[in-house]
């Protein structure tokens, strides 16, 4: 009888250990979340700063009646530099950083969490998700990040397309919008933004996860040179093209609403 009680106690303890998260796993999870937040924030900041002049030019063309061409875009950049100075090409980039850093951090971290949740739900723990859950995880991550940071996106667009005399800094934009137009204006145009984010983020992370799984997949020795040929990676370019062109209408509507 004593042995039976001991065996029962051992089984109860083992079951409890299996259910309750260990301190080591909990610490590892926190470290992984922090790593995703920092990596996403840094990646977003560097990428957006590098393309800030082109992004500002894109917004100006979207909200104006000018017909876009590479020549007109170059002229716009050149005359902006002549009339307002070199740093004016990055006008609104501070507002972009205030928005992009939390957006990218939340998006990357949320993507990892959604992958984990969907992996548990579909029974793919520790494995690559199948295509549809992979697409869903990216779309949910983008929607979560956009919902939490959308007012910052509107402020960025306002600063990019208005004269610098109108708004001195991002706090000035928030104050003027809340006083003159109401707080609801901060989420004006949110619907077209989300409609653009869902396919954009979904296809973006889908492509990333697909390429990552292809890169990690073991290759037979006799096929390694053929499989690693650059043409294999060029096949993924249509995904990026469709992702970008498919969300342009939503970006135009969002800029008009801003």
UniProtKB/TrEMBL annotation:
Location within or outside the cell: Membrane
InterPro entries: DNA_mismatch_repair_CS, MCP, MCP_dom_sf, MCP_transmembrane
Coiled-coil regions listed in the entry: none
Keywords of this entry: Membrane, Repeat, Transmembrane, Transport
Main location as per UniProt: membrane
A Pfam family recorded for this sequence: Mito_carr
UniProt repeat feature Solcar, residue ranges: 31-117, 129-214
Superkingdom classification of source: Eukaryota
Membrane topology value: Multi-pass membrane protein
Annotated PANTHER family: SOLUTE CARRIER FAMILY 25
Family stated for the protein in its record: Belongs to the mitochondrial carrier (TC 2.A.29) family.
Protein name: Mitochondrial coenzyme A transporter SLC25A42 isoform X3
Lineage: Eukaryota, Metazoa, Chordata, Craniata, Vertebrata
Gene designation: SLC25A42
